[in-house]
Write a structure and sequence with these properties.
Blueprint: E1 7-10, H1 20-28, E2 34-39, H2 51-60, E3 65-70, H3 78-83, E4 86-90, H4 99-108, E5 112-117, E6 135-139, H5 154-168, E7 173-177, H6 185-191, E8 195-198, H7 200-203, H8 208-219
Parallel strand pairs: 1-8, 2-3, 3-4, 4-5, 5-6, 6-7, 7-8
The structure holds D-xylitol-5-phosphate and zinc ion.
């Protein structure tokens, strides 16, 4: 991995929506990005939130917003989410037949493109166009809900993707999402991930800011 900064991205899916501003202020000084999960009840069996919440987030925080679209037909919404404040945008490989076109649209609009893969989708499928991407988001649970258990075989998938990136695009950012905690974070970073998305481990703890510091402490010498 080519000296990539390790970034911690708390996922607000596990925040308290009746106190969103308070929860974000609590982690703002220590987090690198805010991860925003948009679910449509069709691509995944859950519905979360959309543009009104993003508008609110823009008022609450200066941190970059990393928007993870778990929606069918993402081609209908790419530019709208960037207009709504997405600095990084992920759509799912499995959700569209226009992967290359959507990457191009994200980049043309000035945001970073991180293609998201469900656990079963092979990283080899990205070989031809990996160099067009800023990053890849590896789902390490089945998308749709916070608080699930990390799927073990995904650890090997992180390594396979880092090896592929070393061959083709050494500065590729690898984001991991789902079931990440203080116990497995060392293996995850050692496997080659650098954008660490965490929901329940951070917002489910009694002191989210302290939890981020503990996470950073654990990986600081890797
Ligand atoms: C799940 C979402 C995740 C979720 C992760 O589909 O994409 O971002 O918030 O939550 P934890 O860290 O609790 O698994
Ligand atoms: Zn997510």
């Amino acid at each position: 991995m080519k000296n990539l900064k390790i970034k911690i991205a708390p996922s607000i899916l596990s925040a308290d929506f009746s106190n969103l501003s308070r929860d974000i202020k609590a982690i703002e000084a220590d987090a690198d990005l805010i991860h925003v999960d948009v679910m449509d009840g069709h691509f995944v069996p859950n519905i979360s939130f959309g543009f009104p919440v993003m508008k609110a987030l823009e008022k609450i925080t200066k941190l970059p917003l990393y928007v993870h679209l778990m929606i069918s037909n993402p081609e209908l919404y790419i530019e709208k989410f960037i207009d709504a404040g997405a600095d990084i945008l992920s759509f799912h490989y499995e959700a569209t037949v226009h992967v290359d076109m959507l990457i191009t649209r994200i980049k043309n609009k000035g945001a970073k493109a991180f293609l998201a893969l469900n656990p079963h989708t092979p990283v080899e499928n990205l070989r031809l166009f990996l160099s067009k991407l800023d990053g890849v988001l590896l789902m390490t649970v089945n998308p749709g809900f916070g608080g699930q258990k990390f799927i073990d075989y995904c650890m090997n998938k992180i390594k396979l993707l880092r090896n592929l990136a070393n061959e083709i695009k050494p500065d590729l950012e690898i984001a991991v999402d789902g079931g990440i905690n203080l116990e497995n974070i060392v293996d995850i970073v050692n496997s080659g991930a650098n954008v660490i998305i965490m929901g329940s481990e951070i917002f489910g703890s009694s002191n989210p800011a302290e939890m981020i510091l503990k996470i950073k402490e654990r990986i600081k010498n890797l």
